[in-house]
Write a structure and sequence with these properties.
By secondary structure, the chain is mostly beta strands. The chain is built from 2 helices and 10 strands, in the order H-E-H-E-E-E-E-E-E-E-E-E. The strands form 2 sheets. An 8-stranded antiparallel barrel has the order 2-3-4-5-7-8-9-10. A two-stranded antiparallel sheet has the order 1-6. Mean pLDDT is about 85; it is low at about 20-25.
Length: about 140
């Protein structure tokens, strides 16, 4: 059980560290919102991570061994690598190169390396880890 929590914690760190923008680009929040972004490259059979952005929150859903864990964190887009979370920017900034995310214990800065209608790459600015995402295929 302890190993499971370590694995979940590791993937949480990777996800949180991988949610940001591209150099000298200005991405629209509309490309992020209302899509299910699935982390690519995870080889675990019983593990998946899905992220969804709305106007003010990043909702991250981890599925592991039949259980689901949800984390909801506020975020905003920024042109700068803000090191402190500015609540006044949540749900007010519609373009940016960086995603600034506030977790329960920390502030994470992600550079949006690539963002299109169907794929996204985010670089955690503190760990330099890049995570790739693809929009979940419509199941209807």
């Amino acid at each position: 059980m302890n190993t499971n929590f370590k694995l979940i914690a590791l993937f949480i760190c990777i996800i949180i560290s991988s949610i940001i923008s591209a150099q000298n680009c200005n991405y629209s929040i509309e490309l992020l919102k209302n899509k299910k972004w699935v982390v690519q490259g995870i080889e675990e059979k019983d593990f998946s991570t899905t992220c969804k952005y709305d106007d003010s929150n990043l909702i991250t859903i981890f599925k592991y061994e039949g259980k689901e864990y949800t984390i909801v964190d506020p975020y905003y887009l920024s042109e700068n690598q803000d090191t402190e979370f500015d609540e006044s920017k949540v749900n007010t900034v519609n373009h940016g190169t960086f995603i600034i995310q506030k977790s329960a214990t920390d502030v994470f800065v992600f550079q949006i390396v690539h963002l299109s209608e169907s794929t996204m790459s985010l670089k955690n600015m503190s760990s330099n880890v890049v995570v790739n995402y693809a929009v979940e295929a419509d199941q209807s």
